[in-house]
Amino acid sequence: DVTIEGLVRDIACPIQNLDGNATHFSMKCVQDCVRAGSPLAILTKDGELYLPISDKMPDYSQKKKLMPFLGKYVRVKGIAFERKGTYAIVITEITEMKDVHVTLEGE
Fold first, then answer.
1. Phi-psi region of 62 (alpha: psi -120 to 50; beta: other; left: phi over 0)
2. Cβ 102 vs Cβ 72: under 8 Å
3. What does the alpha-carbon distance between residue 22 and residue 43 come to, in Å, rounded to a whole number?
4. Cβ pair 42, 6 in contact under 8 A
């Protein structure tokens, strides 16, 4: 069991655009990527990306659980997995951290 904190967003931008981080990003870009089908992830301040997975096999989408938190900084409790630099988490609890200031591009 672990607790992680980070930004709920698409996976493409933090991999391709190193200017975006867990507290400064373009909400329009995040929304456009997710609308186009990009998977969701949690980006920590350390730059680690955690992919949400289910607690069942075969795995099923966690998008519905995460969409209310899109573009928000969250605290997540769950079971974490790591394999050769790839991180995943089975989310057991997720809450928004309203005390963390998130800067949107253009603000």
1. alpha
2. yes
3. 6
4. yes
- pLDDT digit string (tens) for the chain, length 107 residues: 999 999 999 998 888 877 778 999 999 999 999 999 999 999 999 999 999 999 999 999 999 999 999 999 999 999 999 999 999 999 999 999 999 999 888 65
CB 72 within 8 A of CB 96: yes
Instruction: Give the chain's length.
Output: 107
CA distance 67 to 80: 20
Q: How many CB atoms lie within 10 A of CB 42?
A: 26
Closest CA to 62 of 94, 30, 36, 86: 94
Nearest CA to 23 out of 87, 70, 71 is that of 71
